[in-house]
Amino acid sequence: MSATIRDIKAATGLSLATISKFLNGGNVLPENRVKLEAAIKELHYEVNELARGLVTNRTRTIGVVVYAVENTFTGTLLKYVGESLRRRGYGMLICDSGNDEEVEARNIKFLINKKVDGIIVIPVSGRANFLEPAKNAGIPVVLMDRNINGEFDCIKTNNRTASKRAVEVLIDAGHTAIACIGSESEYTGKERLLGYKDAMEAAGLAIRPEYIKRGTHSIEFGSTAMQELLELPEPPTAVFMTNYEINLGSVITLHRLGISCPEEISLIGFDDLILSHIIEPKISVMAQPMKEMGERAAETLLKHIEDSDGEAAPEEMILSAKYIEGESIRKI
Question: Does the pLDDT at position 50 exceed 80?
Fold first, then answer.
């Protein structure tokens, strides 16, 4: 038979009011907290989250909506968000939008109906309309990786500046025929392409249209785009790959065609994930602070939930990516 709140009362000698206050997330005296935690552990008492939610109007559950759960970048962020939430006693309910704006909008309504306390979003849409139901329900929202019109708190990386730095590394190594494989739809892809152009223009280098490959942040596009670059009459000597899936697709093509790196082509990528640690030569990359991004998003959301700050203006927190040198760039 499961332990009850009266069993805890018998074990601690504390009042039902004090025990109830503690179980519902309230503050109690330090010595009482010690007694209660010991009794709960000894009695194997399980908190009835549904009942507690009815009392506190909270479920201690956070909804997380991601543009594609299969994406390695997304999975890594979820890991750090989840760890941070667990440390604060919150659970996580994940919804995959499958890169579909309509699914994304339905996911928000689903989470509202599940009575989540807050929502973290890595969005598909570039418009904030789909978040109106959450705003109307008084549910705080924090964005990650991609901002939308400055309407919500957002944790992201300095994509444009970091990309400019990546291309500068290639330029400093003597390369002038530099290509870029990126996205024409995702916010991050657009920003990283701008960083590529910034570096080329600052160095006085020509931006050749055939050296810019725009598509999607996917393995398939990375592979196809790399092959197209290699088939040009004058192929580039170096390529900036603007996300992890593109990194992977590009390397697959090089291996399939037997093109050696960096002897025949130099590479620099974005995101320090699995690939750069398992292939040779090690790919030089701009690494996003994934752990900090996940923790900041969780902390910002919980601050809104637990320490309501009224009508505070949305804040954009821009974190810095850092350059990690590998062995994929040849000096010429």
Answer: no
